[in-house]
Amino acid sequence: ADGGRVLRRSPRGRAASASQRRGVSTANNGGLNRQRGEVEEEERALRLFMEGFSMLDFWTAVGIHTFRATAAATKVLRNMAGAAKPSAFQPATPHVPRAATSAKALESSIYVLDQQKREWAGIPSAEKAALLERCLENMVSVTDGVARETVKAKGGYESGLGEEITAWSSCCWIVREAIKAVAADFKPALGKTRKIKGTNQVACEVFPRGLLGLVFLGMRGEVWLQPGEEKARQGRPKEVAGEEGALWLILGAGNQVPAVIGDIVHCMFMCNAAVVVKMNPVNDYLGTYLESSFQPLISKGYLQIVYGAAEVGKTLVEHPQVDAIHMTGSDRTFDAITWQGRPKPSKESKEAPPFTKPI
Fold first, then answer.
1. Residues sharing a CB contact under 8 Å with residue 234, sequence separation 6 or more, in sequence order
2. How many CA atoms are closer than 13 Å to the CA of 9, on its beta-carbon side?
3. Could you tell me if 284 and 118 are in contact, meaning their C-beta atoms sit under 8 angstroms apart?
4. I need a surface site. Which of 1, 93, 143, 157 has the fewest CB within 10 A?
5. Contact call for residues 287 and 305 (beta carbons, < 8 A)
6. Distance CA 211, CA 287 (A)
7. How crowded is residue 1: how many other Cβ atoms within 10 Å of its Cβ?
8. Hey, is 202 helix, strand or coil?
9. Do 138 and 293 touch, CB atoms closer than 8 A?
10. Can you tell me whether residue 190 is helix, strand or coil?
11. 162-183 vs 125-141: helix axis angle to the nearest 10?
12. Radius of gyration over alpha carbons of the chain, in Å?
């Protein structure tokens, strides 16, 4: 309105106002150009970002944020309902290792396994899966006992029995997965497959499966096939010693019982061997529960569990009926077995180790 009055008053004012408007217009155009440039730059950056952002990444991000939001909401509801307080700290009770299995009992165990290894090697997959199913039922029934005994030996804190129940549950999951594979005659249903970008390799997604996908959001486990292989080969694993079977020794892990369970399942069902397990003195308090769990295999002479420290281990390692050793332990234990107590030679040495059994 002021500009209009100036224009009506004088030609000079009219010219001045026109000049001012041109200046304002030029300034506005400059501002618009800058804004347009900034918008284009943002669009370009967003375009580059989206090119490297797959739908898998998007839904993974959505899943993770949904999980976090659900966890936060659950925590609020628990607090409103009066959540249970964390368990009090429970100190560990010093564990006294079990008495070593006698030399006579060791020989008896080895004899039984040597007699039964051929039978075990020839059992059909369906029958083996049924035996392992019975073992799993026993494992579930001893869950609380395992948790209480482990907390007694190791101590416990806020979660009480929860942490050890979770650890034993993972053992049950290992066995359940093996049952499914063996029951399908080692040809379980394949998950998704994909071509690895820039290679001639195929990857098969094997983890997580089913509802576990809700727990392990954003995680993926794959088996990569050999370069050039277009399809996964499935089937019964090659027998360790053909129809004659084999007898393997497991030197059990002392830190986590899932490692022991995994070793038993692997050696017996994937490698087709009859097995003797020497429990580690650190956690041999779980031996009773393992014996109860795997009783269907022990009663038929396919599996034996023994106890003791280094001397028992040495006896079994060197036993002529033991074909191979499967161990979870330190490099010192491995070297002691491989070099039979002799000093380990340098890397440049071509000296062959005196112990020739597979480890």
1. 186, 187, 188, 190
2. 10
3. no
4. 1
5. yes
6. 32
7. 5
8. strand
9. yes
10. coil
11. 170
12. 34
pLDDT tens for each residue of 242-255: 678 999 999 999 88
99 class by beta-carbon count within 10 Å (0-12 exposed, 13-18 middle, 19+ buried)? exposed
Q: What is the DSSP letter of 156?
A: B
pLDDT tens-digit map of 263-284 = 999 999 999 999 999 999 999 9
Residue 302: what residue type?
A: Y
What pLDDT, in 10s, does the model give residues 113-154?
Answer: 999 999 999 999 999 999 999 999 999 999 999 999 999 999
Question: Which residues are within 8 A (CB) of 322 and not within 5 positions of it... i.e. 6 or more apart?
Answer: 110, 247, 248, 249, 276, 316, 357
Burial 327-359 (b: 16+ CB within 10 A, else e): bbbeeebeebbbeeeeeeeeeeeeeeeeeeeeb
**Each residue's pLDDT tens digit, 44-91:** 666 655 555 566 677 777 878 887 888 788 777 777 766 567 778 889
What confidence category does residue 318 fall into, taking pLDDT thresholds of 50, 70 and 90? very high
Please give the order of strands across the beta sheet that includes 274-278: 303-306, 274-278, 247-251, 324-327
Buried b (16+ CB within 10 A) or exposed e, 224-244: ebeeeeeeeeeeeeeebeeee
**Three-class HEC string of 253-287:** CCCCHHHHHHHHHHHHHHCCCEEEEECCCCCHHHH
What is the DSSP code string of 2-68?
A: HHHHHHHH-HHHHHHHHHHHHHHHHHHHHHHHHHHHHHHHHHHHHHHHHHT--HHHHHHHHHHHHHH
Distance, CA of 163 to CA of 157 (rounded, Å)? 9
Of 256, 265, 264, which is closest to residue 283 (Cα–Cα)?
Answer: 256
Tokens of 2: 């002021």
Helix, strand, coil shares of the chain, percent, nearest 5, are: 55, 10, 35
